[in-house]
TrEMBL record:
<feature type="region of interest" description="Disordered">
    <location>
        <begin position="1"/>
        <end position="40"/>
    </location>
</feature>
<protein>
    <submittedName>
        <fullName>SDR family oxidoreductase</fullName>
    </submittedName>
</protein>
<keyword id="KW-0560">Oxidoreductase</keyword>
<feature type="compositionally biased region" description="Basic and acidic residues">
    <location>
        <begin position="7"/>
        <end position="37"/>
    </location>
</feature>
<dbReference type="InterPro" id="IPR036291">
    <property type="entry name" value="NAD(P)-bd_dom_sf"/>
</dbReference>
<dbReference type="GO" id="GO:0016614">
    <property type="term" value="F:oxidoreductase activity, acting on CH-OH group of donors"/>
</dbReference>
<dbReference type="InterPro" id="IPR002347">
    <property type="entry name" value="SDR_fam"/>
</dbReference>
<dbReference type="Pfam" id="PF13561">
    <property type="entry name" value="adh_short_C2"/>
</dbReference>
<comment type="similarity">
    <text>Belongs to the short-chain dehydrogenases/reductases (SDR) family.</text>
</comment>
<dbReference type="InterPro" id="IPR020904">
    <property type="entry name" value="Sc_DH/Rdtase_CS"/>
</dbReference>
Length: 292
């Protein structure tokens, strides 16, 4: 039995060494993503407590800071980018709210339990869970995807969502909202991101099924499916250099989106503006028409 096959017998897969720069530091990017909220707040999350995973940078940072502007206290979970996480917490506090760090690998259920426990200990409640953390590893051929990479990608992108929802469930009551991050690749496919796009298909199915499971208790579950968004994920190893150079140019709008163009979709699904929506997916993708 070779090493790559043996990895599937492990309950937890450590970071792979194929793209050592992932998930990437936003502070190291020359062309910084636009994450600051674009409009004044209106108290749509006043008094609420939210968890945003992958909240150190990109879509997660934009969402966390927007939630803070709308009145929420926000806990951010991140893997290891302390510098980026500090910027996010500082921005949350500048909005007049409170923030909380949680560093760790959410593919480990114990890390998820610790995150929720920390939030409950600090604020005594949990109203919104945003499952945004993810990773991707480009491969031209399906035969290049190792068993280790395959399990790692599923562990980070979808297993973590199960673990966090399981940890959060006892604290979610009527009116709570869960918002998951899927992707346009779930709808249109991606020949170079086979394992990643497969996890996004799983996330969409999980969203619809979890909605059916929780709606009887007044808990809504929806998702956002971004198109190509300018975050650290792609330039820091999540896409080949030749694709990064022309990232987003294939959309009808001819450009990548910015994190602060996606965060409002998460806000809409997290607040009472979307009170008659559950099991649905929003598509901030630059005009790409998809089915579903």
């Amino acid at each position: 039995m070779n090493d790559s096959t043996e990895t599937v017998d492990k309950a937890f897969i450590e970071e792979t060494n194929e793209e050592p720069k992932l998930p990437g530091h936003e502070t190291a990017m020359d062309d910084k993503p636009e994450w600051e909220p674009r409009y004044p707040g209106s108290g749509r999350l006043k008094g609420k407590v939210a968890i945003v995973t992958g909240g150190d940078s990109g879509i997660g940072r934009a969402t966390a800071v927007l939630f803070a502007r709308e009145g929420a206290k926000v806990a951010i979970a991140y893997l290891e980018e302390d510098d980026d996480a500090r910027i996010t917490i500082d921005a949350i506090e500048r909005e007049g709210s409170e923030g909380l760090f949680h560093r760790g690998d959410l593919g480990d259920p114990e890390v998820c339990k610790a995150l929720v426990a920390k939030v409950i200990d600090k604020w005594g409640r949990l109203d919104v869970l945003v499952n945004n953390a993810g990773e991707q590893h480009p491969d031209k051929e399906v035969t290049e995807i190792t068993a280790e990479q395959l399990q790692r990608t599923f562990q980070t992108n979808i297993f973590s969502m199960f673990y966090l929802v399981q940890a959060a469930r006892p604290h979610l009551t009527k009116g709570a909202a869960i918002v998951n991050c899927t992707s346009v690749t779930m709808y249109k496919g991606s020949g170079g991101l086979l394992d990643y796009s497969a996890t996004k298909g799983a996330i969409t199915a999980f969203t619809r099924s979890l909605s059916e499971n929780l709606i009887k208790d007044g808990i809504r579950v929806n998702a956002v499916a971004p198109g190509p968004i300018w975050t650290p994920l792609n330039p820091c190893g999540g896409a080949p250099p030749e694709k990064v150079e022309h990232f987003g140019e294939g959309t009808p709008m001819g450009r990548p989106g910015q994190p602060n163009e996606v965060a409002p979709a998460f806000l809409f699904l997290a607040c009472e503006d979307s009170s008659y929506m559950s099991g649905q997916v929003l598509h901030p993708n630059g005009g790409i028409v998809v089915n579903g």
